[in-house]
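Sequence in, structure out. First:
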Amino acid sequence: MKLLLVEDDAMIGEGLQQAMRAHAVYWAKDAMQAEQAIMQEVFDAILLDIGLPKKNGIEWLTEFRKAGNQTPVIVITARDAIEHRIEGLDAGADDYVLKPFAIEELEARLRAIFRRKEERLTNQIEINGVVLNTANYTLSAGALSHRLSSKAFAIMYHLMSQPGMIFSKSQLEEKLYGWGEEIDSNAVEVHVHHIRKKFGPDIIQTIRGIGYAFPDKKEK
């Protein structure tokens, strides 16, 4: 995978290049270098810091999207206020990672972006023999196949979009309910129970005291 890293912090830039040696990582230290790189190369994804000198990352990203560029962009920043995250996503970011972050999380988010891209073409997510059809909300595993309710589908969609990633109960509740909608305190547990009743207990992992995850490896 060919990645463009736009980051002015030398320690982070050098660290990411070293840690992500499995990919070809081009490091641009400001928006101007990023623009030059894009004119010369085609990148699979862009890792973009917000706090860049001269032209900040949000401004650069807004112009990048207005120019019609659809390359996936993950914003990486220490700005954790909700308004900053909303600003980045509204400007055209595909995902948002807060510093400091684990390389494994960044890699997982990159994989998730490309799975979503593939899903838009195929209308399904398939992992280890489990298939979630996003067109008709059907979940299939082996000989079992059931259509899910909208909230059960939302849980499986977000778990399968990032297998191995742990979602807390509150994070999943945010996916199930709209702004201002009253949240049922045990809704997540109820829907997870119903999914397991249909497909078995191993379809969703419980990480005690933390949350839920879709297993990223097939059980032996």
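Second:
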Amino acid sequence: MREALHVIDNELVKLPYSATDDEVNNFKKLAKKEIYQCPYCQARLIVKHGEERGLYFSHQHSEACEESRMVDKAEKKYTKQIERESKLHKVLIDIILDELEIKSKVNKEMFVNVGYKAKTDWKEYPDIYVKIPKKELAVSIITNVSPSDDSKLAQQIKKRHEYFLDKGVEPIWFIEKKEQAIEKDKSSIILWDAELSIALKTREDNIWDKLISNEVADEKFFDYFNYPSSFIERVDVRSLYYIYNNDEKVVIKVQRFLKDRVLKPLRAFLVNEGYELPFAEALAVEDGFKLSNPEIESEQRKAFQEKIKQKKESFAEQLRYQEEMRKLRLEQEEEERKRKAEEQDLILKELLEQRKGDKINTELNYNELKRLLKERIGLTQKEQMELWTRHMPKIGINNSRVVWELVIENNCTSFNELRPILENK
């Protein structure tokens, strides 16, 4: 066993994993004076110390009671369950456990213990088990997520989450802050499978649902935020709780998002920038853990609505600007087309002037006609072939000038406009 009840004040005593020789000897002296006893069978406990297990309690002659053996067996299963976690995992558990134990001393109706000790017969264990009036909570922490184990971890989390629910226990998940990845320019958060699996649905999320539902009816809603929406079948705001050390104190960051993609990359729409909660406030017990600040939530919803208003105005202004630029571009293109047409007419006049004295041939040759038609009406290779094989034999192979004059007289801007004129010639 690793823990025991102090016989004087009935408080749970925790031995440090490592200790100096003097500290080890002192703990052993206390044990000899029968100050420690098993919390299950009340038998006297001794203190042992070894390289593998560190400092720990043991029954005399290692004859553990049945309850203790069940705890040891559960501890081994739990150790295997968390073997993928980082060293920070244990640190965070101890911090949360200490905070909850302090609260349980004030709230006598609150029971707190490590998960595998509270529920030795379970197949899955939370890191911490909490019982309050009318509710049981399973607190778990996720660290050390990597691409190689993300999908497998997500499946394990889903299985564990459903198991807790089947046991009538509400799962509460925290995740290491370093896993958070945000695209600010797209108002989005990119999630691990594991993160999406542990996202919770709280009372505050339901309030956000109502607000977002009124806004997403606008089909341009996500365009305002430059968010690349996938297919949001229904509004479903979820929350994640990131845990980390900030300025030498542990805080929880509350992050809410609108669930979107269920295929990688798992992108979701950020409904707010998130906010930090002091650790003690986040774990305040109401009907479960508080996990939010209603005043901040109200302020952020108001800020969100104001942001939408500003985004709409900015988006409308951008559309007006784009339309003005489009009209200007079309005007410039039309002016350029007219200029080229005038240049082509001038070229033709100059060419005919140069050939006035040529008694043998005063007509355009076909190559010159092709060049002029390409510049004037954008003649394509396919249209050129049609002109040569279908229309020129009827007009006359050497009558290129006739074709050009028809273009000028009818102010043709495309071969489609010229074609019926040629067919009626």
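Remark: Residues 1-12, 356-361 have pLDDT under 50 and may be disordered.
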